[in-house]
Write a structure and sequence with these properties.
The structure holds 2 protein chains of 2 kinds. Chain A is of the alpha/beta class. Chain A has one domain: STAS domain (Transcription Regulator spoIIAA, 2-Layer Sandwich). Chain A is built from 4 helices and 5 strands. The chains are: A alpha/beta, B alpha+beta.
Amino acid sequence: MTSIDVRAEGGGVVLVPSGRLTVVTAPQLRETVANQLVSGQQLIVVDLSSTEFVDSSGLGALVSCLKSARQAGGDLRIVAPTEQVSMVLRMTNLDRILQPRASVDDALRG
Amino acid sequence: MSAFAHREVDVPATLYSIETVQIEFDTWWNELGEQKPETRFAFELAVVEIATNIVEHTHRAEGTSGRRFHLELDADETSITAQFADNGLPSNIDLSTVTMSDVEAEGGRGLALAIAALHSLEYRFEDGRNIWTLVCLR
Protein backbone atom coordinates (compact mmCIF):
# COMPACT_ATOMS: atom_id res chain seq x y z
CA MET A 1 0.00 0.00 0.00
CA THR A 2 1.41 3.36 -0.86
CA SER A 3 -1.11 5.47 1.02
CA ILE A 4 -4.45 5.73 2.75
CA ASP A 5 -6.30 8.89 1.82
CA VAL A 6 -8.68 10.07 4.55
CA ARG A 7 -11.53 12.55 4.17
CA ALA A 8 -14.60 13.48 6.20
CA GLU A 9 -17.82 13.22 4.22
CA GLY A 10 -21.54 13.03 4.94
CA GLY A 11 -21.30 12.33 8.66
CA GLY A 12 -18.60 9.70 8.31
CA VAL A 13 -14.99 9.31 7.36
CA VAL A 14 -13.92 7.81 4.05
CA LEU A 15 -10.63 5.90 3.85
CA VAL A 16 -9.16 5.09 0.46
CA PRO A 17 -6.31 2.56 0.72
CA SER A 18 -4.35 2.29 -2.50
CA GLY A 19 -2.09 -0.52 -3.70
CA ARG A 20 -1.71 -3.78 -1.78
CA LEU A 21 -3.29 -4.56 1.56
CA THR A 22 -1.10 -7.34 2.99
CA VAL A 23 0.74 -8.31 6.15
CA VAL A 24 3.14 -5.46 5.38
CA THR A 25 0.51 -2.74 5.15
CA ALA A 26 -2.44 -4.02 7.23
CA PRO A 27 -1.11 -2.37 10.44
CA GLN A 28 -1.38 1.00 8.67
CA LEU A 29 -5.11 0.43 8.08
CA ARG A 30 -5.69 -0.72 11.67
CA GLU A 31 -3.89 2.35 13.01
CA THR A 32 -5.78 4.75 10.75
CA VAL A 33 -9.16 3.31 11.75
CA ALA A 34 -8.20 3.28 15.45
CA ASN A 35 -7.21 6.95 15.26
CA GLN A 36 -10.53 7.85 13.63
CA LEU A 37 -12.52 6.00 16.30
CA VAL A 38 -10.53 7.64 19.09
CA SER A 39 -11.23 11.04 17.59
CA GLY A 40 -14.96 10.33 17.70
CA GLN A 41 -15.73 9.18 14.16
CA GLN A 42 -18.20 6.28 14.23
CA LEU A 43 -19.03 5.61 10.61
CA ILE A 44 -15.95 4.34 8.76
CA VAL A 45 -16.26 3.86 5.01
CA VAL A 46 -13.39 1.97 3.35
CA ASP A 47 -13.35 2.67 -0.37
CA LEU A 48 -11.55 -0.35 -1.88
CA SER A 49 -11.69 0.80 -5.49
CA SER A 50 -7.92 1.52 -5.45
CA THR A 51 -6.94 -1.59 -3.47
CA GLU A 52 -5.48 -3.86 -6.12
CA PHE A 53 -4.65 -6.82 -3.88
CA VAL A 54 -5.72 -8.14 -0.47
CA ASP A 55 -4.51 -11.24 1.40
CA SER A 56 -5.59 -12.94 4.63
CA SER A 57 -3.76 -10.33 6.71
CA GLY A 58 -5.61 -7.53 4.95
CA LEU A 59 -8.90 -9.32 5.51
CA GLY A 60 -8.00 -9.80 9.17
CA ALA A 61 -7.42 -6.07 9.48
CA LEU A 62 -10.83 -5.32 7.94
CA VAL A 63 -12.57 -7.75 10.34
CA SER A 64 -10.69 -6.25 13.30
CA CYS A 65 -11.61 -2.72 12.24
CA LEU A 66 -15.26 -3.72 11.77
CA LYS A 67 -15.35 -5.10 15.32
CA SER A 68 -13.67 -1.99 16.72
CA ALA A 69 -16.13 0.29 14.95
CA ARG A 70 -19.11 -1.68 16.23
CA GLN A 71 -17.70 -1.75 19.77
CA ALA A 72 -17.48 2.04 19.54
CA GLY A 73 -21.17 2.14 18.64
CA GLY A 74 -20.53 2.71 14.97
CA ASP A 75 -19.99 0.71 11.82
CA LEU A 76 -17.50 -0.01 9.05
CA ARG A 77 -18.69 -0.39 5.48
CA ILE A 78 -16.71 -1.28 2.40
CA VAL A 79 -17.20 0.15 -1.07
CA ALA A 80 -16.46 -0.97 -4.62
CA PRO A 81 -13.94 -3.79 -4.10
CA THR A 82 -11.79 -4.62 -7.12
CA GLU A 83 -12.09 -8.04 -8.77
CA GLN A 84 -9.27 -9.59 -6.73
CA VAL A 85 -10.66 -8.28 -3.45
CA SER A 86 -14.18 -9.47 -4.35
CA MET A 87 -12.83 -12.95 -5.07
CA VAL A 88 -11.08 -13.18 -1.71
CA LEU A 89 -14.16 -11.90 0.15
CA ARG A 90 -16.22 -14.64 -1.52
CA MET A 91 -13.64 -17.37 -0.83
CA THR A 92 -13.72 -16.58 2.88
CA ASN A 93 -17.48 -15.86 3.13
CA LEU A 94 -16.54 -12.47 4.53
CA ASP A 95 -18.86 -10.84 1.99
CA ARG A 96 -21.59 -11.84 4.49
CA ILE A 97 -20.34 -9.46 7.19
CA LEU A 98 -18.54 -7.03 4.89
CA GLN A 99 -21.25 -6.57 2.26
CA PRO A 100 -19.83 -4.27 -0.38
CA ARG A 101 -21.71 -1.09 -1.26
CA ALA A 102 -21.59 0.18 -4.81
CA SER A 103 -20.63 3.75 -3.93
CA VAL A 104 -19.44 5.93 -1.06
CA ASP A 105 -22.84 7.66 -1.07
CA ASP A 106 -24.60 4.31 -0.62
CA ALA A 107 -22.29 3.43 2.26
CA LEU A 108 -22.85 6.76 4.00
CA ARG A 109 -26.62 6.39 3.68
CA GLY A 110 -26.57 2.91 5.24
CA MET B 1 5.43 -13.20 -24.01
CA SER B 2 6.37 -16.78 -23.24
CA ALA B 3 4.44 -19.81 -22.07
CA PHE B 4 7.56 -20.91 -20.18
CA ALA B 5 8.69 -17.84 -18.23
CA HIS B 6 11.05 -18.56 -15.33
CA ARG B 7 12.00 -16.31 -12.43
CA GLU B 8 13.92 -16.78 -9.19
CA VAL B 9 14.30 -14.60 -6.13
CA ASP B 10 16.33 -15.17 -2.97
CA VAL B 11 15.48 -12.87 -0.05
CA PRO B 12 15.78 -12.56 3.75
CA ALA B 13 12.83 -14.06 5.66
CA THR B 14 11.40 -10.67 6.64
CA LEU B 15 8.05 -9.02 6.06
CA TYR B 16 9.44 -6.53 3.58
CA SER B 17 10.59 -9.37 1.33
CA ILE B 18 6.93 -10.08 0.62
CA GLU B 19 6.80 -6.80 -1.30
CA THR B 20 9.84 -7.97 -3.26
CA VAL B 21 8.10 -11.27 -4.02
CA GLN B 22 5.06 -9.43 -5.40
CA ILE B 23 7.22 -7.19 -7.58
CA GLU B 24 9.00 -10.27 -8.98
CA PHE B 25 5.64 -11.95 -9.45
CA ASP B 26 4.41 -8.93 -11.47
CA THR B 27 7.40 -9.15 -13.80
CA TRP B 28 7.10 -12.92 -14.21
CA TRP B 29 3.38 -12.71 -14.89
CA ASN B 30 3.89 -10.07 -17.54
CA GLU B 31 6.56 -12.23 -19.22
CA LEU B 32 4.23 -15.21 -19.07
CA GLY B 33 1.47 -13.41 -20.94
CA GLU B 34 -1.25 -15.34 -19.15
CA GLN B 35 -4.58 -13.74 -19.94
CA LYS B 36 -7.00 -14.99 -17.30
CA PRO B 37 -7.19 -12.56 -14.36
CA GLU B 38 -8.81 -15.17 -12.12
CA THR B 39 -5.78 -17.42 -12.55
CA ARG B 40 -3.47 -14.58 -11.56
CA PHE B 41 -5.62 -13.57 -8.59
CA ALA B 42 -5.65 -17.11 -7.24
CA PHE B 43 -1.99 -17.91 -7.82
CA GLU B 44 -0.63 -14.58 -6.56
CA LEU B 45 -2.78 -14.91 -3.45
CA ALA B 46 -1.40 -18.38 -2.73
CA VAL B 47 2.21 -17.22 -3.32
CA VAL B 48 1.77 -14.30 -0.92
CA GLU B 49 0.09 -16.48 1.72
CA ILE B 50 2.90 -19.05 1.68
CA ALA B 51 5.59 -16.33 1.72
CA THR B 52 3.84 -14.77 4.73
CA ASN B 53 3.58 -18.16 6.44
CA ILE B 54 7.32 -18.75 5.97
CA VAL B 55 8.23 -15.32 7.35
CA GLU B 56 5.88 -15.58 10.32
CA HIS B 57 6.94 -19.15 11.13
CA THR B 58 10.60 -18.15 10.97
CA HIS B 59 10.00 -15.14 13.19
CA ARG B 60 8.06 -17.15 15.79
CA ALA B 61 10.39 -20.14 15.81
CA GLU B 62 13.86 -18.68 15.80
CA GLY B 63 14.04 -15.05 14.76
CA THR B 64 14.92 -13.95 11.28
CA SER B 65 18.68 -13.50 11.56
CA GLY B 66 20.42 -15.38 8.75
CA ARG B 67 17.16 -16.91 7.57
CA ARG B 68 16.29 -16.64 3.89
CA PHE B 69 13.86 -18.11 1.43
CA HIS B 70 14.22 -18.86 -2.24
CA LEU B 71 11.30 -18.73 -4.67
CA GLU B 72 11.19 -20.16 -8.19
CA LEU B 73 8.30 -19.36 -10.51
CA ASP B 74 7.81 -21.57 -13.56
CA ALA B 75 5.24 -22.37 -16.19
CA ASP B 76 4.67 -25.01 -18.83
CA GLU B 77 1.83 -25.55 -21.26
CA THR B 78 -0.55 -26.94 -18.67
CA SER B 79 0.43 -25.54 -15.29
CA ILE B 80 2.12 -22.75 -13.35
CA THR B 81 4.29 -23.61 -10.38
CA ALA B 82 5.89 -21.81 -7.47
CA GLN B 83 8.45 -23.52 -5.26
CA PHE B 84 9.64 -22.02 -1.99
CA ALA B 85 12.68 -23.34 -0.13
CA ASP B 86 13.81 -21.89 3.20
CA ASN B 87 16.51 -22.71 5.71
CA GLY B 88 14.30 -22.35 8.80
CA LEU B 89 13.26 -24.98 11.33
CA PRO B 90 10.79 -27.62 10.10
CA SER B 91 7.19 -26.51 10.01
CA ASN B 92 4.76 -28.58 12.07
CA ILE B 93 1.91 -28.39 9.59
CA ASP B 94 -0.65 -30.98 8.56
CA LEU B 95 -2.27 -29.52 5.46
CA SER B 96 -5.05 -32.13 5.57
CA THR B 97 -6.45 -30.54 8.74
CA VAL B 98 -6.54 -26.93 7.51
CA THR B 99 -10.00 -25.32 7.49
CA MET B 100 -11.26 -21.82 6.75
CA SER B 101 -11.70 -19.65 9.85
CA ASP B 102 -15.11 -18.44 10.94
CA VAL B 103 -16.13 -15.04 9.55
CA GLU B 104 -15.65 -13.39 12.96
CA ALA B 105 -12.01 -14.53 13.22
CA GLU B 106 -9.26 -11.97 12.65
CA GLY B 107 -6.69 -14.52 11.47
CA GLY B 108 -5.99 -18.11 10.51
CA ARG B 109 -7.15 -17.96 6.88
CA GLY B 110 -3.81 -17.95 5.08
CA LEU B 111 -3.24 -21.64 4.41
CA ALA B 112 -6.94 -22.29 3.80
CA LEU B 113 -6.94 -19.56 1.15
CA ALA B 114 -3.80 -20.95 -0.46
CA ILE B 115 -5.31 -24.45 -0.62
CA ALA B 116 -8.59 -23.11 -2.04
CA ALA B 117 -6.74 -21.06 -4.67
CA LEU B 118 -4.51 -23.85 -5.97
CA HIS B 119 -4.79 -27.14 -7.80
CA SER B 120 -2.29 -28.56 -5.31
CA LEU B 121 -0.19 -27.44 -2.34
CA GLU B 122 2.53 -29.68 -0.93
CA TYR B 123 4.93 -29.23 1.98
CA ARG B 124 7.98 -31.33 2.84
CA PHE B 125 11.17 -30.98 4.87
CA GLU B 126 14.16 -32.19 2.87
CA ASP B 127 17.93 -31.78 3.30
CA GLY B 128 17.44 -29.22 6.02
CA ARG B 129 15.06 -27.09 4.03
CA ASN B 130 11.31 -26.49 4.09
CA ILE B 131 9.99 -26.99 0.57
CA TRP B 132 6.57 -25.71 -0.49
CA THR B 133 5.26 -26.53 -3.97
CA LEU B 134 2.26 -24.62 -5.34
CA VAL B 135 0.55 -25.60 -8.60
CA CYS B 136 -2.29 -24.02 -10.60
CA LEU B 137 -3.56 -25.47 -13.85
CA ARG B 138 -3.62 -23.02 -16.77
